[in-house]
Amino acid sequence: MPKYLALFRAVNVSGHNIIKMEHLRKLMENNGFKNVATYIQSGNVVFETDETNKAKIAKNLEVLLYKEYGHDVFIFILDKADLEKVIDSNPYTTREPEPSGIKKFFVCFLAGDVSPQGIDQMNKFNRSDDVYKAIGNILYLKLSQSAADSKLTNSFIEGKLKLKATTRNWNTTLKLLEMLS
């Protein structure tokens, strides 16, 4: 049975779109998903399903969440090969985890490929020492300070690129690959 990763956009952030992961696991299992495992509270779910169409899986989960919680949540679906490609393509770091403390490497998953106009908008308004590189539908971030001090928030990225986005730090991204393996 194929194994997938679901990345939920904007759940359990600043008290909005609250979803308890234990309840979510049970909800998914009761709706035909197998071996459901979550990682931290930000909407990272690894599961198995007979369905192989990623767009259909995402839509089914989005409808399920809306019916159960009333939240309109955008969901990104990846398989192991997708996530390995994301990790191996990072221009700023290797497969090594970051040490404890402030995290500087992030992966922003996007709902489409980045346009040159979107990058122009980001360049125009990014006034920090943070750097980024777009490769297809992934934006790699290397922050000069902490995420809390960066202008490269999900809202900023979505506004400039005109794409839905969800961001994970490097260690979380590596852990999710481990869960898919």
TrEMBL record:
One protein family per Pfam: DUF1697
Sections of the chain in a coiled coil: none
InterPro entries in the record: DUF1697 (IPR012545)
Protein's UniProt name: DUF1697 domain-containing protein
